[in-house]
User: Fold D-alanyl-D-alanine carboxypeptidase-like core domain-containing protein from Kocuria aegyptia.
Amino acid sequence: MAPSAAVATGTAYDIDSASSLTVVVNKHRPLDPQTYVPKPLSRIQAERMRSDAAEAYKKMVRAAKADGVNIVAVSGYRSYDTQASLYDSYVQQYGQETADTIAARPGHSEHQTGLAMDVGNSSGVCALQDCFEETPVGKWVAANAPAYGFIIRYPKGEQGVTGYTYEPWHLRYVGSDVLAEQIHAGAKATGEPDVDTMEEFFGLEPAPDYLP
Ligand SMILES: [Zn+2]
Assistant:
């Protein structure tokens, strides 16, 4: 992948380096190297995240708790090998075409950056399902996650851009609340085209499918 600097709102962001907090990973943009391992990693419940993202995550969880909402860590860092077995199991079960819509191929998963966490409710209600958005945690993160540097990485109606259907539970740390708020704000502008994905914000091509 050729190095490039994405410029948005007057600030240059490194969207190419695997270790960058603003790295953009999608079906057109594998991690470089594909076997990248983030360091250091911190534990969050039974999951792991890159330590800087973990700090921000814990701050967010504390704030939610103060509002009476219990955010549970469902799935955080996944290694290349873990992602490979997850993807392969979906291919066995559903075939490659369907597998590609529900799990990233190894080296193409945001979970491998250590910057993503799938969150849930302590009751487990609507875990990893559309109805998650109507749950206490779903509502809380939609309204407040950007203030802690996290975006809903796969918003509703953006499958043609991100390559994934709506995932209201998949939070991605982008390094700053300012940037997260800017990306998030794109979803609220009415009458204008949405700019609520990293692809749109950084002026990248849509990545609905893997390149042949
Ligand atoms: Zn996820």
User: Anything to note?
Assistant: Residues 1-5 have pLDDT under 50 and may be disordered.
